[in-house]
Input
Amino acid sequence: MAQLSRRKYNTSESNINYSFAEYPSIKIYADTTGDTWKNHLLFGDYIKILDTKIKDGRVRAKSRNTTGWVNVKDLEKKRVLEVNFVDIGQGDGCHIVTPADEHIIIDAGKTDNMVRYLAWRFNLYDRKSPLRYPFKVIISHSDSDHYLGFGRIFDNDKVQVDDIYHNGLVERPGKNRLGKVENGHLTGLVKSTADMLNIINKSDNRKGDGSLYCKTLFKALQHNPNVHFTSLSTHDNYLAGYDDTNEINNKEYSMKILGPIIKQTNGKDSLKTINDLGKDKNGHSVILKLKYGNAKILLGGDVNTEFGKEIHKYYKGKNSLDELTVDVAKACHHGSNHFHYDFVKSLNASATVISSGDDESYSHPRPDTIGALGKCGYGDKPLIFSTELARSNKEFTYSKLKGISASLGKLDELKKEIKQATDETIIKELKAKQKKINKELNSFLTRYGMINLRTDGVKMILAQKYETPASYGKWDIHKLKYSYSAKRFRPDD
Output
């Protein structure tokens, strides 16, 4: 019987054979022949090869908890770049997996949705020890709907964090919430680990009004005592180790820092202030341009009108507005109408992802913002995705919501029962029930609403789940391919 070519799969140190799903998506079939499928996989999904023997052009495999048969032609040996825009409600949350299997989390929302996503993705329920790879964390700025969810992650001893990157503005109690101010500029930037520890280790900075950011960062030390804190700005140009000479699979993989924009005040690195705490924090969000091969992706925080104008002016003055042009952009500030039009226009993205939630008083994404994103996008039909809209699925019925509410109530009851129980057998049974409910809730929270981006640097998909699976699949997939003549990603029809 024919065997699967070594060009189609890898073998891990523990002798597990594995591969990845081909572009744009593939099926796991019920048998060696026929069109009956059991699961629909996206470009780049991990596939465990259970048997290398080929039967009717297929091999037996497992992926996404589904065992079946996969076409040999649908297997790809190399991993792709994943950018998962997680639906964390009102706020931002993004999980990046590089083709070298490095994991980066940019913002984590305000609640526990990001840690629930990680529990679902990495099956943290049954783990006895931490994940083998540490995470890098990037906090775009100190608004709670971007950083507070990290507290839940830092509390989880199964998730290790080795680096925490931030914008240098550490909010704390006191008159100058963001540090020292000189001549209209914030000069008390927190750059190093020592600088950060000097602030968060002071108990007074973890008490009272304005202390929540320091409290959250302090939590990171519980399970990650050797974590490094580093500020990011245009002064650094690139994230350390990810400059334009860095390569994965013989393709450039870089993370360039486009903001915040550092200036010099009295010989010190500084950031401009407009004497508005909220606008200063938002405007000086970390903005990253992620590049893999030909694909360029912008990941920013809450850049607003005032500082969007400053950023556009800065790059225009350097004759480098093309630095801002990308293929995919995460919309700043959840689709707020507080944006600078020329800044959005300079992005000229083929696709934009808006991260927003229902439980807010801003009506994000705003109608004029959606209109501007479409008008300023690249091509005749620029794509606009929204985690909030992607979450609008058939499961959000009154009866389903009642069921979720009941499940949450049951979780609270189980916590009390486990705490009061003394018999080990009963405790084990209660914990099993607790795990089952958590799995159901976490799966619900993460299956719908997430916008999935996958690219190998030449081909790209953006996908969201259908409200109801169709006969031909369960994913709404939009395909893009790099045009060497236009030097842009275009729809791959």
Observations:
- The chain has twelve helices and 29 strands.
